[in-house]
Amino acid sequence: MTSTIRSQQEVGMSTRSLTEAPPLEQAPRPAEAVRPAVQVDGVSQLFQRGGPPVLQGVDLTVAPGEFVCLLGASGCGKSTLLNLIAGLVQPTAGHIEVTARRPALMFQEPALLPWLTAAGNVELALRARGVGRGERRQEALRLLHLVNLDGHGGKRVHELSGGMRQRVALARALAQDSSVLLMDEPFAALDAITRDVLHQELTRVWGEQGLSIVFVTHNVREAVQLGQRVVLMGSRPGRIVREWQIDISHPRTIESPAVGALAAEITSELHQEISRHGH
Amino acid sequence: MVTDLSSRGMRADAADPNVASAADRAVVAGLDALDAGPQLPPRPGLGRRFVRSVLPPIVFLALLVGVWQLAYVAEVKPPYALPGPADVAETFWTNVLSGRASEAIWTSLSRGAIGFAMSLVLGTLLGLAMWASRWLRAAVGPIVSGLQSLPSVAWVPAAIIWFQLSDAAIYTVVLLGAVPSIANGLLGGLKQVPPLFDRVGRVLGLSAAGRIRHVLLPAALPGYLGGLRQGWAFAWRSLMAAELITYSPALGQGLGQLLNVGRELSQMSLVITSITLILVVGVAIELLLFAPLERRVLTRRGLTMR
Asked: Which residues of A touch B214 (CB under 8 A)?
């Protein structure tokens, strides 16, 4: 499964653009193979009838295996968009299609259940997926190993640091075995050192697992460091303003000039967008 | 362990660029070691715990007995109304040795256990129903809370009129005392479950029943346990009130009835003996059953300091 998705990723990346249909004509594959992982069509969202829209006319296509960062100031509706894709909320207007049976979602808080151990939290996700009792333990240990938490499976949530908790949450999200992973500012509450390390871990896991990731953040550098594409959202109403393809190869570091230049460009665009609301 | 990880990382590094490098792994391991969760101080040893929590109440009790002895010697009240500690101790031992005390404890405790078990089932069902139905909560909630503050001894006359002097009358009073606490405790626990936990359950794809079983109920457990603890205290009190008033040979002799015998014979030492036994049983259940259970649940979740 992994290898299929990886090859789809290359196809999907080359010519896909925001509004056009997926590039069916390009590859002599069955239509199934190039179906986008996430397809958002003209989605609008109102929280109150007659109130201002939170999202207006949002179109977004995520190719299989693609890493997309949604970037925007607070209140631009990026978390709302993520909840819509996750299926936790129904859109007021528009249509959303996700190829994965059920997308995995990581919150800003680790949201681990405190009465379970680290491994127990991962096992609950496996159990919800219908994995048998015997396999669960093994699989949970494998996933914890994947996020560098060997030997910590028996610990309770309160015995783990913030970074470790967020890695358990990542392992739990991976336990859902979904091809789509949605992340809602998952590292925002962590210190800078831990965040750097987790960026590397996430990039590695993404490469290994061939996931499609939609990563919400308000941190420009984080977006540039992680994403293959950065989508800038504007506020009131939330909508997509502009997007950048990022062809800088991994591993990316903040120090590299290419990352710095792009981050500066996106920051200035973001500031322009925010300044519009000042008067 | 760190060296082990590093060496594995080094080998994997050469083969597969996707696997974390040795350096990355070392940084991760170092961060984890530095930034582990709050380190609780080790639990103090048996000796220190004895000095801290067992000794003070013993000293206080000894002082109390001393004051009592002084009052007895000074004849603050005539001796039939205020017997000395020695007289009461003698009555106490006579009743313990004759088996009268253990019989009374057994009668009351088994009634208390049965009444509490029934309250547990009814209170839990009521709490769940009130949580599930907004309408039921609005309709029944104030009455349940009101019952909690109504001394259940007020139900004894009604229970006797309905069920005569029978076990049914006693259990009615116990249930009316304990069910509201248990239902309210569970409801309070359920209300305090963070909405984020329910979202986690939904994201993981748990069914509604699965979310209740694996997320909601465990999350509500601390509040529920608090309700059970209070429910037991109320059940025990109600039982004593009921036993004190419903006196009949068919009901056997519980602690409440023993107390009544003391009153009828004007035997103050038996009255104090009964009160002491009631107190000891109540405290023992609290200390041996509920306190350790609650401490275990809270410690596991990191909600308490030792």
From this structure: 124, 127
